[in-house]
Write a structure and sequence with these properties.
With 1040 residues, the chain is mainly β. The protein has no helices and 97 strands.
């Protein structure tokens, strides 16, 4: 069979691609110790497990957002995952977690959503961590919660800095019913103190009354400084008031009820009688609030008590910044007897380093847990959650670790063997201690043979690989692996320090000393730039050249002014031996600020290189330079403060502007926008990476691809890093794609921590997990069930969504790179979509009974558009997700079947029809760029199975013949065709890209045995049993 073409054709040679996370590289989990509390609360479950909350995002080397469950031995319970807890304004934190009798968790803190569902500061989770949607708080508290407590009847008292709950005025204190609604019968309200946590303790007494303490001025307009007792309805219990009135700063960190009804209070305060101090920072109150003067610490605790814990035996454990009690020296953690004396039998053998506030939580086996923010106890590694035995010693068998994943990765480099060296502010990699520097294997796992470290508070700015496999690092550090090195060092291939290389740099000006850029020349000499004034005792302001052994190269002249705060950001050696320097600098005696200059090989200025100085022709601050094979120079950088200043331009070899380059508009005008990396492909197309959100007004998060002339390559669905991504590293990976590093925590809606391998591949249909491969999946009409086997991890998930009469239409409606489960309901003309991000759903009307659903990305915005084809009138209705008006047009005749795909590789889906005609099957395709395509190909009983089988980015016309099981495919490149048998009569076709190589794989599903036969073009034939007779394979959704 020879395809018969009707009109002339215009062919395009571009690929329609998008950026994916590599399936062969598992992004490592990097974590760092945060400045705020790492853990806030810990609650024991009946089976011995521990629910831990805080502001962490990594627990034991796994992503956990503010809440995790540990097994009794401190290992992570991986069956519990609460999803993404986020805040629209500040870093999210769960301050308190409560365990209900039914196993559900009530959480409160500073957050505004959970898995994308609006939940302001208060929510309830099911036992598996999923959101309990029956707990409806409405708009919730309008500000953060600092404490909450569970009443015996299941109601929850909340405290915080809010002034409203679900739109109802209520300051600082409120009660929530068991269904999440606001309890209007609770009358308590506090006057908030300035910049303080209003309620630190909520204590339920046996008579139903409630003692609250913290930092507040009044309750229900009655003065009550920092402690009060409420009746069960929230009204003030006037029979309780602290006496005498406190002096000095008054703040209560903890309140504890003894067996006799008296109350211990701890914090920062002083109580006096007749001007004589009775107690300071620790006191005992009678049940009516008056001071118990028999409990005296006359000289008191010399500094505030930040946390306290009343043991079951009545002894009081206190911790804080104090160093004496009644004049006797102590170590900041003390246990007091009931008579106020120090318990000499308790001699804690721990001291918490780098800590803020810590809290005690009783352990069922004795002793307690310490929550808070710290890195070590008594010199032993202990991070944010530790177990202290009853004797006061650290239990080193219990060693979980918590940290943040918003790591600032400052540099990366890819070795020839595919291993990746990364640098940043991380402290652990996949749970293993690695301070600031690590090496990853090609699959993303930690290379345990490489162990170098950078001191906390220091960083590596650049990593350069030498031809001899040694590794140069430059940055703001004065030690590497515990040995002195100022701003520059060289490592051996195994990460040990190269002792033969030790240049000594000095910096006497303001700000930290640093080497910000390194460049190894072809002769082995090393160009360095940064904040320094001398090398090995020789004056050289902000720029120098070293010999390969680290000695100062006196033969290189520094042309920069010594009276200007020069920035040498990037070097580029040319084939002639000359050098380009980019940054922000001045020459001696000049007041003109330059961003690019040419140098001769000895460092003197090259007068033959004449770059433009106009603000509209060159970046204000040059940060990246790349030479094309034709000798032209791509220059990238950041904005200055002048309108029209570019972030990317191209120069001729002599420095003049290349007027043939269409200078793109990049970013949105922020001075923080920049281009850090420029890579030119073999086809001349240009990949740029840095920190920007748009290219020529098209959204592009920090990575984009341009044509060789500077236009945005619209055949690429631009990257999907999170909105605040700042890329500092972007290097070609050994097996294709790129290694991206920087400051980001999301890529294609998956949690990562600043490093990921990005590949460029075709937009893949029926990819439900975003790994660039079509997933095996079925729709079971009998129960409206979806069963999908994710190719990324091999796990199957199932859910019920829809009915037997619905028409399935899975596509990526939300633009996160994953197909969304969706269907069209003919009876009502409604669409129902289950978002892949969080499995919430939405619905909308578009179409009518008898319409054929044809969702696809018709406007090239990265999102599928709702669309239907109406056979009765051959009319197409397309609701464009880009915001453009709905398109309504006729194409085809009655009886045609839609065959939508991108036939011309312009990133837009093309409308097309398959027509059963007297002379055989006809294809009519209205290509959005290349124009009309019409041909005769196939028979009337054949099944159209269009797709990109040849990997050129364009859909090929193709049919499957049920009678013979043959596939016949017309190559889009030259309209030749080929055919082969695969399948048999009774099979159901289900083509897709199952191995992620950018080519469609011919596939059939055999209902009689529920067997899939997949002829993968790269990975080989796969035979899988999945589903049952009567199921419809999802990749068959749009086959007529």
């Amino acid at each position: 069979m020879i395809p018969k073409l009707f009109p002339a054709l215009v062919l395009l040679l571009f690929l329609s691609v998008q950026f994916f996370a590599s399936a062969t590289f598992t992004p490592p989990v990097l974590s760092y110790i945060q400045s705020g509390p790492g853990t806030n609360d810990a609650v024991f479950l009946p089976d011995g497990r521990i629910a831990v909350s805080g502001n962490f995002s990594v627990a034991n080397g796994k992503f956990r957002s503010c809440l995790a469950i540990l097994n009794a031995d401190g290992t992570l319970d991986q069956s519990f995952s609460p999803g993404i807890v986020s805040s629209s304004l500040e870093e999210p934190v769960i301050r308190k977690v409560l365990l209900q009798a039914d196993g559900k968790f009530v959480i409160g803190g500073n957050f505004t959503s959970i898995n994308g569902v609006l939940k302001n500061h208060l929510a309830r989770l099911n036992a598996d961590g999923s959101l309990d949607t029956t707990f409806n708080t409405g708009t919730g508290p309008n500000s953060k919660l600092t404490n909450l407590a569970l009443q015996p009847d299941g109601k929850v008292i909340i405290a915080g800095s809010f002034t409203q709950v679900n739109g109802i005025n209520r300051k600082g204190l409120a009660r929530i019913n068991t269904d999440g609604s606001f309890d209007t019968s609770f009358l308590g309200e506090i006057t908030l103190s300035f910049n303080a946590e209003p309620v630190s303790t909520i204590l339920f007494q046996s008579d139903g009354k409630i003692v609250i303490s913290g930092n507040f001025n009044s309750i229900n307009s009655t003065t009550r400084p920092s402690i009060a007792r409420l009746n069960s309805d929230g009204s003030l219990d006037s029979s309780f008031a602290i006496s005498p009135s406190p002096t000095n700063f008054f703040w209560i960190s903890g309140t504890h009820e003894r067996a006799d009804g008296k109350l211990y209070i701890t914090g920062g305060f002083e109580l006096k009688v007749s001007n004589v101090t009775i107690c300071k920072n620790v006191c005992l109150l009678n049940s009516d609030g008056t001071l118990d003067q028999s409990y005296t610490i006359s000289f008191g605790v010399n500094m505030t008590v930040n946390s306290s814990f009343l043991q079951p035996d009545g002894k009081l454990l206190i911790h804080g910044g104090f160093s004496t009690i009644n004049g006797s020296p102590v170590n900041g953690t003390v246990r007091l007897n009931e008579n106020a004396s120090i318990d000499g039998t308790f001699n804690p053998a721990f001291s918490v380093s780098e800590s803020g506030f810590i809290n005690f939580r009783p352990h069922p086996a004795g002793g307690f847990l310490l929550t808070g923010n710290y890195r070590s106890i008594n010199g032993a590694v202990a991070e944010n959650l530790s177990r202290i035995d009853a004797n006061g010693f650290l239990n080193e068998t219990f060693s979980p670790n918590f940290g943040g994943n918003a790591v600032q990765n400052t540099a990366s480099a890819v070795q020839a063997d595919g291993k990746v060296i990364i640098a940043g502010n991380f402290h652990r990699v996949n749970g293993v201690v690695r301070d600031g520097l690590a090496r990853l294997n090609p699959d993303g796992s930690l290379d345990s043979t490489f162990n170098a470290s950078i001191a906390t508070g220091s960083w590596v700015q650049q990593i350069v690989l030498q031809p001899d496999a040694k590794i140069l690092i430059g940055g703001a550090f004065v030690q590497v692996s515990g040995q002195a090195r100022t701003y520059i060092a060289r490592l051996n291939a195994d990460g040990t320090l190269d002792a033969s290389f030790n240049p000594v740099l000095t910096h006497t000006s303001s700000g930290p000393g640093t080497v910000e850029t390194l460049y190894v020349q072809s002769d082995g000499k090393i160009l360095i730039g940064g904040a320094f004034e001398s090398v090995n005792g020789t004056a050289c302001y902000r720029m120098a050249r070293l010999n390969s052994n680290g000695s100062f190269d006196a033969g290189f002249s520094n042309p920069l002014s010594t009276t200007y705060n020069n920035y040498s950001n990037v070097f580029l050696e040319l084939p002639s031996g000359k050098i380009l320097l980019g940054g922000d600098f001045r020459m001696p005696g000049s007041t003109t600020t330059l961003s690019l200059v040419g140098l001769n090989s000895d460092g003197t200025v090259d007068a033959t290189f004449t770059p433009p100085t106009e603000s509209t022709n060159i970046p204000y601050f040059v940060k990246s330079l790349t030479r094309q094979p034709d000798g032209k120079i791509l220059v990238g950088g950041s904005f200055g403060f002048l309108p029209g200043q570019p972030m990317l331009t191209r120069l001729n070899a002599n420095g003049t502007k290349d007027v043939s380059f269409n200078q793109p508009s990049i970013g949105v005008g922020f001075t923080s926008d920049d281009i850090r990396k420029i890579i030119v492909g073999a086809d001349g197309r240009i990949v740029i990476a840095g920190s920007f959100g748009r290219v020529n007004s098209v959204p592009a998060s920090s990575v984009a691809r341009l044509t060789s002339t500077g236009e945005l390559d619209r055949t690429v669905i631009q990257s999907r890093f999170d909105g605040l991504a700042k890329l500092s590293g972007f290097s070609p990976a050994a097996d294709g794609g790129f290694i991206a590093s920087g400051v980001f925590s999301r890529f294609r809606n998956e949690t990562v921590s600043g490093v990921v391998q990005v590949t460029v591949g075709g937009a893949v249909p029926f990819d439900f997990d975003g790994d660039g491969k079509t997933d095996i999946g079925i729709f079971r009409p009998s129960g409206g069930e979806w069963w999908i086997n994710r190719s990324g991890n091999g796990q199957t998930f199932a859910l019920q969504f829809g009915a037997s009469t619905d028409k399935i239409g899975p596509a990526d409606f939300t633009g996160d790179g994953k197909s969304d489960i969706a269907f069209f309901r003919p009876s009502s003309g409604e669409w129902y979509v289950l978002r892949s991000e969080d499995f919430s759903f939405f619905a909308l009307p578009f179409g009518t009974n008898g319409d054929v659903p044809v969702p696809a990305d018709y406007d090239a915005d990265g999102k599928a558009d709702f669309a239907v084809f109406r056979p009765s009138s051959s009319t197409w209705f397309v609701s464009q997700s880009s915001g453009a008006p709905t398109r309504i047009f006729q194409f085809g005749i009655t009886g045609d079947s839609p065959v939508v795909s991108d036939y011309d590789a312009d990133g837009k889906a093309d409308v097309g029809i398959f027509r059963k005609a007297a002379g055989g099957a006809e294809w009519w395709v209205q290509r959005s760029t290349a124009g009309l395509l019409a041909m005769q190909f196939g028979g009337n009983s054949d099944k159209p199975v269009q797709g990109d089988y040849t990997g050129d980015g364009k859909a090929d016309v193709a049919i499957w013949r049920p009678s013979t099981g043959e596939w016949l495919i017309v190559r889009s490149e030259d309209f030749s065709f080929y055919g082969f048998p695969f399948g048999t009569s009774g099979d159901v076709v289900a083509p897709g890209d199952y191995d992620g190589d950018g080519k469609f794989d011919v596939t059939v599903f055999r209902p009689s045995s529920a067997t899939w036969f997949i002829s993968r073009t790269t990975a080989g034939t796969q035979i899988v049993q999945f589903g049952s007779n009567g199921d419809r394979p999802l990749p068959n959704a749009f086959v007529p």
